[in-house]
Amino acid sequence: METKLAISLTILAVVYLAGTTNSTAVKPSSSFIRSSCATATYPALCEQSLSPFAKTIQTSRSQLARTALAVSLKRSQSTQAYLNKLKKFKGLKPRERSAVGDCLEEVSDSLDRVSKSIQELKDCDRVKGQEFIWHMSNVQTWVSSALTDENTCMDGFGGRAMEGRIKTSVRAQIANVAHVTSNALALVNNFAQKH
Question: What is 2-26+61-194's CATH number?
Answer without folding.
Answer: 1.20.140.40
